[in-house]
């Protein structure tokens, strides 16, 4: 008999906290087990891949097997993934790290999106990732652009329950984490070793 799957809801603050806790456990294991990888200053893609392994273990422990972690993902219903930014520009995107149902759960396809940057990257690039997280965690893009009906995916990606900005300062052994919900930065923390 298949175990009943957890039902996630975009508007649920409890689901936001649940996903945040899953991420924090995975990140703790990542920092403990893969510190040598981090210290060697490998690419952000390599680090996301190691974090993916730790996150998938947390999903397994939680019994969540109907959502998937994908890296450098750029598709939405077979098309290039796009968001609408605050100035109403449509922008093609490729997310560093996402947890989603790959289109199998129309009611809540997108759960978690993470953008990772190293501290020495240009502020323009870092702020672009933050803007992307704001757009990805919004419920809609002004109801006049599309309406969510629970049957069709929107043309532009949104409705992630949680967005995470992850900035590594390898030289100072610091990590800045920013958490986004419903199109807003809701908390941040700095981890030090």
Question: Could you name the key traits of this structure?
Answer:
alpha+beta; 193 residues; two-stranded antiparallel ribbon; tt1808, chain A; 6-stranded mixed sheet; single chain; 31% helix
Concise account of the structure shown:
The protein is an alpha+beta fold and 193 residues long. 31% of the residues lie in helices and 29% in strands. The chain has one domain: tt1808, chain A (Alpha-Beta Complex), CATH 3.90.1570.
Q: Which series of helices and strands comes N to C?
A: HHHEEEEEEEHEEE
Strand count: 10
Kindly report the average pLDDT value.
85
What is the makeup of the main sheet? 6 strands, mixed
Q: Compute the CA-based radius of gyration.
A: 16 Å
Structural domains: how many:
1
Q: What share of the residues does DSSP label as strand, in percent?
A: 25-35%
Q: Provide the low-confidence segments as ranges.
A: 143-148
Q: How does CATH name the architecture?
A: Alpha-Beta Complex
Describe the secondary structure blueprint for this structure.
Blueprint (H helix, E strand, L loop, with lengths): L12 H21 L1 H5 L4 H19 L5 E6 L1 E2 L2 E2 L1 E3 L5 E3 L2 E6 L9 E9 L4 H14 L25 E8 L4 E8 L2 E9 L1
Parallel strand pairs: 7-8
Antiparallel strand pairs: 1-6, 2-3, 4-5, 6-7, 8-9, 9-10
Helix pairs in contact: 1-3
Describe the structure.
This protein is of the alpha+beta class. The protein has one domain (13-192): tt1808, chain A. Helix 1 crosses helix 3. 30% of the residues are buried. It has a 6-stranded mixed beta sheet with strand order 1-6-7-8-9-10, with helices on both faces. A two-stranded antiparallel ribbon has the order 2-3. The protein has 4 helices and 10 strands. The chain has helices spanning 13-33, 35-39, 44-62, 123-136, and strands spanning 68-73, 75-76, 79-80, 82-84, 90-92, 95-100, 110-118, 162-169, 174-181, 184-192. Residues 143-148 have low confidence and may be disordered. The protein starts with 12 loop residues before the first helix and ends with a strand. A hairpin with a 2-residue loop joins strand 9 (174-181) and strand 10 (184-192).
């Amino acid at each position: 008999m298949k175990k009943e799957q957890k039902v996630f809801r975009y508007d649920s603050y409890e689901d936001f906290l649940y996903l945040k806790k899953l991420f924090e456990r995975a990140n703790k294991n990542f920092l403990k087990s893969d510190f040598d990888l981090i210290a060697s200053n490998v690419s952000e893609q390599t680090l996301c891949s190691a974090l993916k392994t730790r996150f998938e273990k947390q999903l397994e422990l939680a019994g969540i097997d109907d959502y998937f972690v994908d890296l450098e993902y750029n598709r939405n219903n077979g098309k290039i993934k796009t968001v609408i930014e605050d100035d109403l520009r449509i922008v093609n995107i490729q997310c560093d790290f996402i947890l989603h149902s790959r289109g199998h759960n129309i009611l809540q396809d997108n759960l978690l999106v993470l953008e990772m940057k190293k501290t020495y990257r240009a502020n323009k690039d870092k702020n672009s990732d933050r803007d992307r997280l704001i757009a990805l965690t919004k419920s809609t893009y002004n109801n006049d652009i599309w309406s969510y009906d629970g049957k069709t995916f929107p043309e532009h990606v949104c409705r992630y329950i949680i967005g995470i900005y992850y900035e590594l300062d390898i030289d100072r052994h610091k990590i800045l984490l920013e958490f986004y919900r419903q199109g807003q930065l809701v908390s941040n923390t700095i981890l030090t070793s």
